[in-house]
Fold:
Amino acid sequence: MGVIESMKAVLASPAPRSRPDDGSNGAYWCDDCDVRIRDVDLEGEPVCPDCGAAMRFERATGRDCAC
Ligand SMILES: [Zn+2]
Structure:
């Protein structure tokens, strides 16, 4: 009984998605410290937690293309 119930729970749980749609458009970077904060994780001003400088916003790219 317990085993079957836990198997049902596993099957019913949503499959992990490779690209979670969390609304992120990119990330803020501090070039000096190499610190990165995603826009969805940022709270307040985009300021580097290490050096306090304003961070540069960089949009997420779908793919890296060198051409
Ligand atoms: Zn910094």
